[in-house]
Amino acid sequence: MEYPKITIKAARVNKGLKQTEAAALLHVDRRSLQHYESGRTIPKWSVVKRMEEVYGVPADYLIFGRDSA
Fold it and tell me: Which residues touch 7 (CB under 8 Å, ≥6 apart)?
């Protein structure tokens, strides 16, 4: 299946998850997830792999940070 590039916030919203729900599923605190979504910090690879599972989007298609290019 072909996926478009998508921000991690959009991936979460598309799954219908609130930040607190997604953070629990990703095993991070809400503040960390907030920082990932805003581009303030980049998640560790283990968190990215969980994002793939939780959001159903391959890591290659997730956009981390503010620059969507």
Answer: 37, 62, 63, 68
Range of the domain at 23: 6-63
Residue 23 lies in a domain: yes
Strands, DSSP E only, in the chain?
6-7, 62-63
Number of domains in the chain: 1
Q: What is the pLDDT of residues 50-69, one digit of tens each?
A: 999 999 999 999 987 655 44
Sign, Cα dihedral of 35, 9, 50, 60: negative
Q: Is residue 1 part of a domain?
A: no
pTM: 0.85
- Give 18's DSSP letter: -
Cα(54)–Cα(62) distance, integer angstroms: 13
Question: Do residues 58 and 2 touch, judged by C-beta distance below 8 A?
Answer: no
